[in-house]
Write a structure and sequence with these properties.
The chain is an alpha/beta fold. Helices cover 30% and strands 23% of the residues. It is globular and about 65 Å long. The relative contact order is 0.12. It binds zinc ion (ZN).
Length: 433
């Protein structure tokens, strides 16, 4: 069946000048509501000497200080559960999700019924770009516990009209048993999961390519848009792979790759305003092709727990503002989380770039073990199935990533969930083996 090219053509192909006008209109309302209802933001604007009625565009917005996760956490500790940045009466909240951050206590984020509709709308545009269609039977294989990846993304995928199968984690064998009954055509999961499911199928003597899965839609791990990983998974399944992006502090899914597979299209101009800033200085960086920086988010239509100038710690590169697909949402790739990045003698390293290099060589499981801080070479890298190629890999890592390592063969834990790559042993984390 032929489907429309867009989920929401008007918004997705809106000319930039209209988008700006829409953003400004919603921004003024959002800031006024935050000021009026949330002591947290009244303090923030007050300390900066900013009157809410003077915040009319992104330049005005930049006079408001950033909001960090630590501040939101402190606010919720002082006034549980939602903190004093919440803008609604608790009775209006119909759901809470937790943030899935790897560091510290999670945040509790509230949604009104309207917030859930906004989340589904923004997510549905992204998932449609990623290929979800009403004639898909889609296995949702992220954890349904707590996080937006579960129910919030489920709602957004369902909004596309796809037939959803709520699978969650821990059901791989069951899914394979039921495969002929369900006839799934698509899967939504972490980048790791399709690999795990393929291995499980192979153990049962099933070639994943015979299973008829056509679309892999992945989330939650920087590296999903990387070429080697994509090739490997597409070959394993005989399917196409699209990456998506979102964060539980803002909207569960707010960007995805279109058929061009040339970066993630931002899909939420009516729900969140995106700024790019220098991660070190916080100075604004224009969103234009080639620009890089940290993504900063300001809700434009969030009733329950809005954020203003929230520092995501996600480092992005802008790839373009136009696309042959006709979508006008800017395209970007996420290089990684600044929290995951480590520095070896002045070289910035993202585990995702090592992942890319290893997947090119058919190696999927690895762990980086950091024993001391500051990190000094050689960095210890444990790799499963590396036997005999340790020296070759040490050289490739040095040549391509610019740091010295020592490669050791190891058996690493198998997981359906997001794979853990970085072990900060100096910070009290346990070694993987
Ligand atoms: Zn496109």
């Amino acid at each position: 069946m032929e489907w429309a090219a867009y989920f929401d053509e008007r918004t997705e192909t809106m000319p930039p000048a209209w988008t700006r006008r829409l953003e400004e209109e919603l921004l003024a309302e959002q800031v006024a509501r935050c000021y009026e209802r949330a002591p947290f933001y009244r303090r923030k604007l007050g300390e900066a000497g900013v009157r809410p009625e003077h915040v009319l565009n992104v330049e005005d917005l930049r006079r408001i200080p950033f909001t960090t996760k630590q501040e939101l956490r402190a606010s919720q500790e002082a006034e549980p559960p939602l903190g004093d940045f919440a803008c609604v009466d608790p009775v209006e909240v119909v759901r809470v999700h937790l943030t899935s951050g790897t560091t510290g206590k999670p945040l509790v984020l509230g949604y009104t019924a309207e917030d859930l509709r906004t989340s589904s709308r923004i997510g549905a545009r992204a998932f449609w770009a990623a290929g979800a269609r009403p004639d898909d039977t889609l296995l949702h294989c992220l954890s349904y516990s707590f996080y937006t990846g579960g129910l919030a993304d489920h709602g957004a995928l369902e909004e596309t009209g796809a037939t959803m199968v709520p699978v969650g984690l821990g059901q791989s064998r069951r899914v394979l048993e039921l495969w002929d009954d369900l006839r799934p055509t698509a899967i939504f999961s972490t980048l790791t999961y399709p690999l795990y499911l393929a291995e499980t199928a192979q153990e049962e003597g099933i070639d994943p390519r015979t299973l008829g899965l056509r679309k892999l839609i992945v989330a939650g791990e920087p590296g999903g848009q990387l070429a080697a990983t994509r090739r490997r998974l597409e070959e394993l399944w005989g399917a196409t792979l699209s990456d998506t992006y979102g964060l539980s502090d803002v909207w569960g899914t707010l960007a995805a790759e279109c058929d061009e597979r040339d970066g993630l299209h931002f899909s939420g101009p009516d729900g969140v305003l995106v700024e790019l800033v220098d991660p070190e200085t916080g100075d604004p960086v224009e969103i234009e092709p080639g620009a890089g920086g940290e993504l900063v988010f300001t809700h434009l239509a969030r009733e329950a727990t809005p954020v203003l100038r929230f520092r995501s710690r996600d480092l992005a590169e802008i790839l373009g503002v136009e696309c042959p697909c006709g979508r006008t949402g800017f395209r970007f790739r996420v290089a990684g989380r600044s929290d995951d990045m480590f520095r070896v003698r002045g070289v910035n390293v993202f585990p995702s770039s090592l992942e890319e290099l290893l997947r090119e060589r058919g190696l999927d499981r690895f762990a980086i073990v950091l024993d001391r801080f500051p990190v000094e070479p050689p960095v210890e890298i444990l790799i499963e199935g590396v036997d005999g190629r340790e020296e070759e890999l040490t050289e490739v890592v040095k040549a391509r990533l610019g740091f010295t390592c020592v490669v050791k063969s190891a058996t690493l834990p198998r997981t359906e969930a997001k794979a853990k790559r970085l072990y900060r042993v100096y910070d009290g984390e346990e070694r993987p083996t």
